[in-house]
Amino acid sequence: MAASSYDESLRRLLTHEGGYTNHPSDPGGPTNFGITIYDYRKYVKSNATAADVREMKVEEAKAIYRTKYWDAQRCSELPAGVDYAVFDYGVNSGIGRSGKVLRRALRLSDSSNAVTDAVITAARRADPRTLAIAICDERLRFLQSLKTWPVFGEGWGRRVAEVRAVALAMVASAPAPAASQAPVQGRALVPVAKAAQQGSAGAIAAAGAVAAQQAHQSGMGPAALAAIVAVTGVLAAGTWLLWRWRQMRQQEKPA
Q1: CA 244, CA 224: separation in Å to the nearest integer?
Q2: Stated pTM of the model
Q3: Beta bridge partners of 32
Q4: Segment 63-84, tens digit of pLDDT
């Protein structure tokens, strides 16, 4: 994965995590930028207090996310979309769980959460769309099983639905493997498979519909459902416009 993929994943993650919180029902305790006081004590200051967490710099949070979550799960080696789904899951529920879920989705032993060479190889051979969906589906089931679901369920369900839609958009936008083609004469349009032309925006729209359905079933309110539909529409339109722009640029290239 390119460095820009990490930057986009981190940007979306920080948007979800927000700033300082200390909800009495949240077992994470004092949290800032999604970093709990326990992680802050583990990685930055062993005797950190709630005040230290409140004063945490975003650069400190970013450094923790890069080394302890993204790099620890080898996300840069995972397919586009799968990397984001695994990264966000690991931050939200711990890399011990996200690593095991990734392995289970690949039909590998989940006796460990380690993302090994075998896991990377299997992930690259798997269908990334199916893999991203499987990870997000399991994540939602796990969250729904928690006793704090009645308190945080609407926000959690919305987050998983948005991660799912974005992950599938990343899958659809990833460069396809190079295929041999006959030489193109003149300024003719380079052949593009019909499925590739229609699949990106269609996959995102379909993912959004499924995400909205799951969110509805989980009891999410109308405003949250509308937000999911809106985000999906923007992603689908943006992906189609990107494909169209690339097509036009290809036509403009000299023979």
Answers
A1: 30
A2: 0.68
A3: 35
A4: 999 999 999 999 999 999 999 9
